[in-house]
Amino acid sequence: MTGLAAGRASRLGGMLLGGLTLLSHADAQPAASPESVVLAATILNEGYEPAVDVSGNTLKGVMARPSGDPDGQDDSQHLYIWMPERLDTRGKRLCISLNSRDGQYVSQLEVPLEGDPRLASPLEADTVLRADFMTSEPDYYIRYAETPPPYRLAVLAELKIDCRPATPREAVLVAGWQPYAAPPQSVSVLVNASRLEALLAVWLENNRGNHQQQGVRCAPLEVSPRIAYDTACELNRDGLAKYGALVLDDAAKSPSIILRRGGNVAAAVPVEIRL
Asked: Global pTM?
């Protein structure tokens, strides 16, 4: 790591961990606007299980911050997905997973993107997709509204050829319960870290075209219960901008979740965020 990188870490009030500069973050308030595209989502499965085992994938959600709230009074729900310009949606599906923090509610949704002609080619402009669905568990959404924050229901929106679990994803899109007029500046990456230390590694490009990997500190959720996921990594684009542009369009430099146990890396999970 260069002296310049170390100086940046010092100015940020961060520290060094595993060769990555750890950055602090701040909240941003994205503005709301009407959605651009509305499509119906099909529920592939939905369930409520009072007895839960601690297990599952590491990545549980990528959500705009603040994410808004679902409509707890109705079985009709609406999710908003940020789709950046030039995203190639041809022949793709949006595969959405919903996981409650306590692990008791799980739902998988599918949105075929050929339902709107504007999605038949790489996007010509930033687009907000509203995915409408009918829950068979409206009582859960009422309970959600009564559950103390933060991050009561994780949303993971993946762009894939099909929604089978074994199909690799091509991108992770930022989701929320409210529309956005501009790319969300602050994003929560929700992680099942199994109580391990976690950080989000990202790449930045400075004004000379040089790339440097940075680490964003993740924090355990200070709430209970935290079974399905226990950690949040807050990625703030405004906070990073003074140190470089966030690189999200290079597959070789995708963000990744790093899980550590002591000085050893237990896992590195790619998070192909598009913003």
From this structure: 0.82
